Amino acid sequence: TYRILPDEENFLAVQTSQGVQPKRFKTLPELIQLYLQPSQGLVTTLLFPVEREETTEDRDYSDEKPPLPPRTASTSSSAGSALVSPDTVTASNGLSTISHEYLKSSYALDLEAVKQGANSLPHLNKTLEASCKRLHGEVDKVLCGLEILSKVFDQQSASMVSRMIQQTVSQGGDQELEHLVTKLAILKDLLSSIEKKVHTHTQLNASDVSFDSTHAILEPKNHWLLPNFCTLKHVKLDVYLADLTKIGKSQKYSLSVDVEGGKLVVMKKMKDAQEDWNTFTHDKIRQLIKSQRVQNKLGIVFEKEKDKSQRKDFIFASAKKREAFCQLLQLMKNKHSNQDEPDMISIFIGTWNMGSVPAPKSMGSWILSRGLGKTLDEMAVTIPHDIYVLGTQENSVCDKEWVETLRCALKDYTEIDYKPIAVQTLWNIKIVVLVKAEHENRISHVGMSSVKTGIANTLGNKGAVGVSFMFNGTSFGFVNCHLTSGNEKIHRRNQNYLDILRQLSLGDKQLNSFDISLRFTHLFWFGDLNYRLDMDIQEILNYINRKEFEPLLKVDQLNLEREKNKVFLRFAEEEITYPPTYRYERGSRDTYVWQKQKATGMRTNVPSWCDRILWKSYPETHIVCNSYGCTDDIVTSDHSPVFGTFEVGVTSQFVSKKGLPKSSEQAYIEFENIEAIVKTASRTKFFIEFYSTCLEEFKKSYENDTQSSDNVNFLRVGWTSKQLTTLKPILSDIEYLQDQHLLLTVKSLDGYESYGECVLALKSMIGSTTQQFHTYLSHRGEETGNIRGSMRVRVPSERMGTRERLYGTLYTETIFVLDPFEGDATTCKNSFNNPAYYILEGVPNQSAALASDMLPTLLPSMFTRTRNLT
């Protein structure tokens, strides 16, 4: 069948496949004239034009009679007259042509067959089958949609329709018409019974409606935006069967989630209106990957064969639709899978400067966190961790050999085959991440990066390597660095840190306004940081011999620089209770070698804690350091390996216990006011941008409406509720919102440059009354101001259910609050209400006095309270 269609200019052309230039004609006879000739791209030549006398809408066929068909020599007059009785109605579209052809040629053959005693009319059957071919597809489409809708409200609905359709595809011949009649009968029964099912279901569940099945409506997407092989667009959750288009092809798709049956059905529509079904059981759906760049994009990883998988990407109508679809898939997995999603995992962090020497045969003490300092109990050292992250410096072993060495070591001590998910190298600086096989499909969005900080920032002998990924719904970042050596090069090391912080490309690219210390739920930073002790060598050795580490930690350069807010702003480090890890005599851990011959002369390397592990986590998240120490039996290098183990709370795909929300069940994040002090001599206007994974897209406030300054280097700006946007989370359940965080960046109107960023936890902001917050602003690793305000997260009463978690126990947290009855805020070292801060930052003394008067009313006091997370 060839379709002749008019274009926008009313020229006629035969419909062609994609990419083929159509030939255009003003009239139908002109078109037929060309296609009467052979070799014009058609299988058979066209015969003659049949123009429409009137449009279909204007004609009334009730009183018309069809023309008499032409007769062959063998056709009797009586037979022809019988076939064209006055009561016959003219057929429409191609059916009249098919009937015309049958009467012109095949009818005589059937007539002869009947004369010879035949009981059937084979040519008529073929004609009818051809005429009803499209009807087959349309009936299949309607039946499938109605069957799915029926299953939504009746989980015991029979699957006979699906079986019948499959049988129809495989059978043909004389049974085609019989199957069509059967389909029509079933269609009649479904239509008459489905209303009763829905009515019964709605009566039983009027107070709590939730769906077990959903579908997807998708439309084409520009192919250059997304991967060609499986990109789909505009997914709309619905309970009816609907179409979607695959990029580059004119095929149609539809999705269906059967929660009770544990199946996801992907339906592909063919050109003949038939449908190709691909069914994936719950155990074949390996992973859901939510795009960070496109909030409504979802990747589904299907298992094809053993150890092989295929990813298909879909773009939903909105982030809310994607989230609802993910909830249904996760609900299906939870219902049928024996494997629960974890809400807490254990992470091992290791750092070791190997001294350009291969590792010893046994690294058990490092892997098992045995040695000096805070170590694990003997009963716990044999418990395998979920994730191992090992950073090395001066590691001359090739990547492949080093990964295999670590895998074998883990297998020896844990009897588990760990899977490497990331390896990143910069010269001899390496980071390797290995996970349990059961977690492999929980990890997505793996990113890797490196930064050189060697001579002129072009050599990789110093620098950092980093890895980031998502573990279900929790983001992780890991940085292994090797900073400049030398007791006197403190400022150079500080600059190394800032260069790495600003240049390492990890995490969600939508958060480019934020440095990597704010892009991750949990960020771990470790390596040979090379900060030394500022004390005479003999005093250091005496303190070490007496195991008195506290006086040494007071002169530790890293601790001193952190107190000045020069590096690792708001990072944490577990208490150090082990001796300095550098510089030992190789082959022994009894002697420090503090003199080193260099080309420029004798160099002093005092014993120091060069090898460190620090971390930074979002507020109100769960993280506990269970061990932090060093080995005392690995002696191949002049550094001792350092280990740290962490218990970390994680989130998974949220599934509401309340079912899909009603339109009225919407949570809101509302701000009454925000006030900020930013470090700037500029007097421009500012606005605030809000980012969060719980929002469909980032939001902006209007420009500030108040502005003042009592200090030339600082500006106070304020917003009222009129300038602040009300934010609508994707989901409204309190359990979901308690895990969410809001990232804020204060930007100027002239140039859109950020003057400070921060992160707020929504958990303590949830309630019926306004809550107050206060935190510090930072930009590019430096403290640039502070911000406070009043806000609340309003959750509908219907979405207030929560669940208990493994780490939902009593804990102590330090929270900033605004006390309106307190006249003077407590002066804290290195904070903006401390005049010394301004002196440190180069502000004149007279300005510092003004600042100390201006800021106490802005900054909160601190208090400690205990809260039950459950």
UniProtKB/TrEMBL annotation:
Main location: cytoplasm
Enzyme class: hydrolase
Domain Inositol polyphosphate-related phosphatase residue range list: 343-656
Superkingdom classification of source: Eukaryota
Compositionally biased residues, Basic and acidic residues: 53-66
GO MF terms, alphabetically ordered: actin binding; inositol-polyphosphate 5-phosphatase activity; phosphatidylinositol-3,4,5-trisphosphate 5-phosphatase activity
Any single GO CC term annotated in Swiss-Prot or TrEMBL for this entry: cytoskeleton
Membrane topology, record value: Peripheral membrane protein
Keyword field: Actin-binding, Cell adhesion, Cytoplasm, Cytoskeleton, Hydrolase, Immunity, Membrane, Nucleus, Phosphoprotein, SH2 domain
Compositional bias annotation for Low complexity: 71-86
Region (Disordered): 53-86
Gene Ontology BP terms: cell adhesion; immune system process; negative regulation of insulin-like growth factor receptor signaling pathway; phosphatidylinositol dephosphorylation; regulation of immune response
EC number in record: 3.1.3.86
Subcellular location: Cytoplasm, Cytoskeleton; Membrane; Nucleus
Similarity comment: family membership: Belongs to the inositol 1,4,5-trisphosphate 5-phosphatase family.
PANTHER family registered for this protein in UniProt: PHOSPHATIDYLINOSITOL 3,4,5-TRISPHOSPHATE 5-PHOSPHATASE 2 (PTHR46051:SF2), SH2 DOMAIN-CONTAINING PROTEIN (PTHR46051)
The protein's name in its UniProt record: phosphatidylinositol-3,4,5-trisphosphate 5-phosphatase
Organism of this sequence: Sinocyclocheilus grahami
Lineage: Eukaryota, Metazoa, Chordata, Craniata, Vertebrata
